[in-house]
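User: I've been trying to design a sequence by hand for this structure and keep getting stuck. Would you show me what you'd pick, starting by listing the structure so we're on the same page?

Assistant: Good idea, let's start from the same input. This is the structure you sent:
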């Protein structure tokens, strides 16, 4: 029951909430010991803040919830490949595992670097529910054209 797809579906629900609020539909959840401890979705427009990405908001909530600045036991599930800013936060927060759904050829870290931008002890899994994650983001931008 508690596997990568299960938690990515929760991240997708966050992304859907962003979509409903006319935000770029990216969602994230932070998981420790098979329990979601924090979640977030893009709120760039609402907060008028270019840093209000799903990952950043979920990480801030996790740090505050646990009263810590490091999350080596945590897994971050995010629907779209993180940008370099979010990679920096994941690096400095020492997040132990990053799981993302679909690649972002335009703004994802892969466009800018071929080296691992995450903490050296972190593991990365990509492509979890890739079709669902990709469909949501493509639908959003298609509706804007």
């Amino acid at each position: 029951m508690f596997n990568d797809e299960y938690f990515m579906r929760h991240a997708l629900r966050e992304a859907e909430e962003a979509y409903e609020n006319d935000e770029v539909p990216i969602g994230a959840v932070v998981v420790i010991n098979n329990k979601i401890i924090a979640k977030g979705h893009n709120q760039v427009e609402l907060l008028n803040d270019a840093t209000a990405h799903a990952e950043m908001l979920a990480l801030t909530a996790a740090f505050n919830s646990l009263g810590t600045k490091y999350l080596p036991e945590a897994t971050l599930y995010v629907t779209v490949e993180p940008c370099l800013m979010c990679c920096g936060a994941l690096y400095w927060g020492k997040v132990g595992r990053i799981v993302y759904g679909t690649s972002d050829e335009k703004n994802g870290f892969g466009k800018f670097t071929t080296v691992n931008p995450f903490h050296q002890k972190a593991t990365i899994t990509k492509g979890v529910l890739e079709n669902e994650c990709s469909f949501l983001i493509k639908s959003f931008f298609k509706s804007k054209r």
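That's my pick for every position. To get oriented when you compare it with your attempt: Residues 4-20 form the longest helix (17 residues). The chain is about 45% helix and 20% strand.
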